[in-house]
Design goal:
mainly alpha; MetI-like fold; 11 helices; 74% helix; 0% strand
């Protein structure tokens, strides 16, 4: 293989620096002993200790984990079924269905947030006419997160199974396995890495989503990204840097785990 041109390598390093240096700065200054400003005043870990002493942070963490865990479970179940259906069956309008799955991924978050806000307002009007009350909060955020998470799970499961044909399942049926047994012992083990990777991606997306959550959460329900945005308006402080660093850590761990699950295994000779 030819060696990469030095100019191309330098440009690549500049791009990486532009992408990741701001994150490194946030993590470094989360250990800054100075309360305000960007002047380094010494190393300390007190901001991580003081972080969870705040009631608003504890509440936001609880809301974030509740939404992320529950939406991940729901989107994984629904997305796995969609991914298996796209792989297993030759259905009409398959290309159109795949296009609909890709749309929430490529659609700008602000467009999805505004559309969901208008949809909830429409539903609220219908319910109020019937004498019911409806406010944005936990359930509206949960449904919004499930809406865009399903696409990631379905496409991940489908891509995991794309390299496998129906011959393995048919061979199990020829050996006497029922449809349920062939699914549990052949199809599901093959799809499991994709299911787990899709679930981790869905969890990560829910954990750090801001735009869709901001439009659908209402005034009495805040997650960690919304809390960080609210506090940044008053100035960036080390405790906010510490909170951001923890979010980055959880996101990186989830992404590394998802990539490891999707990595093809080497066949044993």
């Amino acid at each position: 293989m030819k060696r990469t041109h030095p100019a191309l390598s330098a440009w690549a390093w500049l791009v990486y620096a532009f992408l990741y240096l701001p994150i490194v700065v946030v993590i470094v200054f989360s250990f800054n002993d100075s309360r305000f400003g960007a002047t380094w005043a010494g190393f300390t870990t007190k901001w991580y200790g003081n972080l969870f002493a705040r009631a608003d942070v504890r509440e936001a963490v609880a809301h974030t984990l509740e939404i992320a865990l529950l939406s991940t479970v729901l989107s994984t179940l629904l997305g796995t079924l969609v991914g298996l259906g796209l792989w297993r069956y030759t259905i009409r309008f398959r290309t159109g269905l795949t296009f609909l799955l890709v749309m929430p991924i490529v659609m700008p978050d602000v467009v999805m947030g505004v559309s969901l806000l208008m949809f909830y307002a429409f539903v609220r009007g219908l319910l109020e006419r019937a004498g019911w009350t409806f406010d944005n909060g936990f359930w509206t955020v949960l449904l919004a997160h499930v809406t865009f998470q399903i696409s990631y799970v379905a496409l991940t499961v489908r891509s995991r199974l794309a390299g496998y044909g129906r011959d393995l399942e048919e061979a199990a049926r020829d050996l006497g396995a029922t449809g349920l047994k062939s699914f549990l012992h052949v199809v599901l083990p093959l799809a499991t890495p994709g299911v787990l990777a899709g679930a981790l991606l869905a969890f990560t997306l829910s954990l750090d989503d801001f735009v869709v959550t901001y439009f659908t959460s209402g005034s009495g329900f805040r997650t960690l990204p919304v809390l960080i945005y609210t506090n940044v308006k008053r100035g960036i402080t080390p405790d906010i840097n510490a909170l951001s660093a923890l979010l980055v850590l959880v996101t990186v761990v989830a992404i590394i785990t998802a990539n490891a699950l999707l990595r093809p295994r080497r066949s044993v000779p």
